[in-house]
Specification:
- This protein has nine helices and seven strands, in the order αβαβαβαβαβααβααβ.
- The protein is of the alpha/beta class.
- A seven-stranded parallel beta sheet has the order 3-2-1-4-5-6-7, with helices on both faces.
- Helix 2 links the parallel strand 1 and strand 2.
- The termini are far apart.
Length: about 260
């Protein structure tokens, strides 16, 4: 007896893997805003964070209220072995469609006083972490012959910033890494791009002297997390895509 047309359609649907977005550093700020936007766009979320369980669980609940699944993965991206254990087997079973790398820390200091640990901590998280994540999941994307990768760099990685030699170096390195990766994987239908936010209203910018900073921004305001997340969503979701290996500044005109 032949299956009905409706049954065949249901059977086909069951074979379609869910759209999954891996959002690295997704519990707060830009990462959270991005995870929520991608959830509304129909993605289930693999949300990674290092240690703030409270914020991660709050974000998970908000994603579930949207009607999407959200798996929480707590680990330190700076540790290669830990990152591999958290992501490799998972990605090989179901390759994510999207990877957003938003992990980042600051340890600001003038170069003359910068301690070796202040340098290495930032480099290990902001730059080495990107390698650790990509090295864990890229083969799965290559095998699937599709994917979108978006890394969150910074205007500091484009023009430099006094007191942030470590952060500027890491974010500039992230741009170089993505440009190289784009040349490697474009033929596999994997898009790689970078967003470079300026001053965005997050915990990281809460104590900055806005009275001195705002006059330098042509739009005369600090950015919102959704100003960044909206661009990331576009790069991850737009079907008519020919943007590849690019750095998109989101800085209110602070740098061009």
């Amino acid at each position: 007896m032949r299956l009905s047309e409706e049954a065949l359609l249901e059977d086909d649907k069951s074979k379609i893997a869910p759209k999954i977005a891996l959002v690295v550093g997704g519990s707060r700020g830009i990462g959270k805003a991005t995870a929520l936007r991608l959830a509304r766009a129909g993605f289930d979320i693999w949300l990674t964070y290092r240690s703030n369980h409270t914020h991660a669980e709050q974000t998970q609940q908000e994603i579930r209220q949207i009607g999407r699944n959200c798996d929480l993965l707590a680990f330190d991206v700076a540790d290669h072995e830990t990152t591999q254990k958290a992501l490799r087997d998972r990605a090989e079973k179901t390759a994510p469609s999207v990877i957003v790398y938003n992990a980042g820390i600051t340890r600001d200091n003038l170069a003359v006083w910068m301690k070796p640990r202040e340098w290495s901590d930032v480099i290990r998280t902001d730059l080495d972490g990107f390698y650790n994540v990509i090295n864990s999941v890229l083969f799965a994307l290559v095998h699937a012959r599709r994917g979108r990768i978006v890394a969150v760099s910074s205007v500091s990685g484009q023009v430099g910033q006094a007191g942030q030699m470590n952060y500027s170096a890491a974010k500039a390195g992230l741009i170089g890494a993505c440009k190289s990766l784009a040349r490697e994987v474009g033929k596999r239908n994997i898009f790689v791009n970078v967003v470079a936010p300026g001053l965005i209203e997050t915990d990281m910018t809460a104590n900055l002297p806005m009275d001195k900073i705002l006059p330098m921004i042509p739009l005369a305001r600090i950015g919102k997390v959704d100003d960044v997340a909206s661009v990331i969503e576009f790069l991850c979701c737009e079907p008519n895509m020919y943007i590849h290996g690019q750095v998109i500044g989101i800085n209110g005109g602070l740098a061009t």
